[in-house]
Design a protein that fits this description.
Blueprint (H helix, E strand, L loop, with lengths): L4 H18 L11 E10 L5 E8 L2 E6 L3 E10 L9 E8 L2 E8 L11 E9 L3 E9 L2 E7 L2 E7 L2 E16 L2 E16 L2 E5 L6 E7 L2 E5 L5 E9 L2 E4 L4 E6 L2 E6 L5 E8 L2 E5 L1
Parallel strand pairs: 2-6, 2-8, 3-7, 3-9, 8-10, 9-11, 10-11, 11-12, 12-13, 12-14, 13-15, 14-20, 15-21, 16-20, 17-21
Antiparallel strand pairs: 1-4, 4-7, 5-6, 16-19, 18-19
């Protein structure tokens, strides 16, 4: 499920075109095409980890007190000629890992209509949500057990209340994380980062190429801090930086007793760090 940078950039470009093409089906424009709702219950059968690989559509994952997975699927095609029967959710099991994969075997031509599948997945809190990959669509994960890695090409990522460490990467979209036990690397090419950081998972980087970075750090965080922006301002509020240095576009110093490196960087945008 790991995507190479080349594939991520390709998916980002294709995703932007898909979003533009699907935009005519939203807002004030009446929906013209096909729509199909379907529900499915999937037993865990002793699985200890869950992975999700979604194609085109929003994905929501919520933890609940339950023993199985409840999946709500909303399939849509902007074209009356789109074949929704060719879009399905496959279930794979291997070595204790349960994987859900959206698959489309029909015509992928934009002129023929590209179907989407929105997923809402309710999972047992005892089941580790390990990986979530999404090509085009917003991602939301809340109240689950990690460690969790999210990889999104086009769409916003929101992660709340994860019992475990979280890493996230996006090509085009904002990333927001709050309530994770720890946060590892978080990156987006085009978008803002909004993070509440209780702890970091070893040497950690929060990076955006074009976008603002806003991180609220626990006062108990021990790290060596390095902050940099090429075009923008750096603001540090309420945090004590031992042996620190600050300029308008950079800051560095020791948080608490020091430790792993926390690097916060954006090429074009502001960086704001404050105390939790």
């Amino acid at each position: 499920m790991t995507r190479s940078p080349t594939r991520r950039r390709l998916l980002g470009g294709v995703g932007a075109a898909l979003v533009a093409g699907l935009a005519g089906c939203t807002g004030a424009t009446p929906f013209v095409g096909k729509r199909l709702e379907d529900d499915r219950t999937i037993p865990t059968d002793g699985a200890t980890a869950l992975a999700i690989d979604a194609r085109v559509g929003d994905v929501t994952v919520r933890g609940e007190e339950r023993d199985d997975l409840a999946v709500e699927m909303l399939k849509q095609s902007s074209s009356v000629g789109g074949d929704l029967s060719k879009l399905d959710l496959a279930v794979e099991r291997e070595d204790g890992r349960l994987t859900l994969v959206t698959r489309y075997t029909g015509d992928s031509s934009l002129l023929g209509g590209t179907p989407t599948m929105d997923l809402t997945i309710r999972v047992p809190r005892s089941l580790r949500v390990a990986e979530l990959a999404a090509s085009v669509g917003d991602v939301r994960v809340e109240d689950v057990t990690g460690d969790l890695a999210v990889d999104s090409s086009v769409g916003d990522v929101t992660i709340e209340n994860v019992d475990g460490a979280v890493t996230a990467e996006a090509s085009t979209g904002d990333v927001r994380i709050e309530g994770a036990s720890a946060i590892g690397d978080v990156r987006t090419d085009v978008g803002d980062l909004d993070l509440v950081v209780a702890a970091i998972d070893g040497d950690t980087a929060f990076e955006s190429s074009t976008g603002d970075v806003d991180a609220v750090l626990s006062p108990e965080l021990d790290a060596e801090l390095e902050v940099q922006t090429s075009v923008g301002d750096v603001t540090v509020e309420g945090l004590s930086l031992g042996d620190g240095t600050r300029t308008e576009s950079s800051a560095s110093g020791t948080l608490g007793d020091g430790g792993p490196t926390l690097r916060v960087e954006t090429s074009t945008g502001d960086v704001t760090l404050s105390a939790l």
